[in-house]
């Protein structure tokens, strides 16, 4: 008497029989249900802790204050002197974002080289346990720590620190954007370089190329369009951040916006907000056009450079 043969499903290198597959699906369903309930609990608890109350918008006193503020926004301030000053501050805001982004790229490049994890069997086999291997990982974790420190402190806090250090004006704004963006760009650059197709890297190592040659002729050409795209996107983010650094005295159009708010000059606030929105929309359009051109003209890795 022969037993009945079970029919299984191949999943990877395992064979799952129908009852085992059903049991695994139940476990996944229970896990998903638990995660959903956990999320709902955290949201409810957080909303209560933050006193989240949409009904506050319908409170008569709040509606009166909102109406007073909105009515003060019109007509906007359009005197030639104020418009000229607004234009000067917009140019200063652009200058802060450009210089801050360029400095961030300069500082991020060496940190990226240290924070990029060297992967692959050939590298691990040839260097594991050596003094170079120990030093390389020490540099890796040290660079990652610096990047996390720069990225973990927001721009406004950096601006406050540099205002105390070097005084008021656009210079602390430049330093604040450079410090924070160094951490952001350094991490992005490292992640992008690590995600390069490992087959290209191993092919380069098989030819006897050094790690520097692999970096220059494999990793960077293969990821250059993405690197440039993220750098440009970071400049757009810095442009937005530069508009609010003036709240703490770090230059830009935010300085005048703070003064106008404190003087309850809502007509000036309206002009400044419209100018900021126009600048951001313009930067978004320009950035999108440039990123599209960069990605359309991608640079491909030329393996002949390694031979």
UniProtKB/TrEMBL annotation:
Keywords in alphabetical order: Cell membrane, Membrane, Transmembrane, Transmembrane helix, Transport
GO cellular component, one term: plasma membrane
Main location: membrane
Segments traversing the membrane: 30-47, 96-118, 156-179, 212-233, 245-266, 272-290
One term of GO molecular function: ABC-type phosphonate transporter activity
Membrane topology, as annotated: Multi-pass membrane protein
Pfam family, one: BPD_transp_1
Domain of life: Bacteria
Compartment(s) of residence: Cell membrane
Domain ABC transmembrane type-1: 90-287
UniProt keyword Transport present: yes
Recorded family membership: Belongs to the binding-protein-dependent transport system permease family.
Protein name: Phosphonate ABC transporter, inner membrane subunit
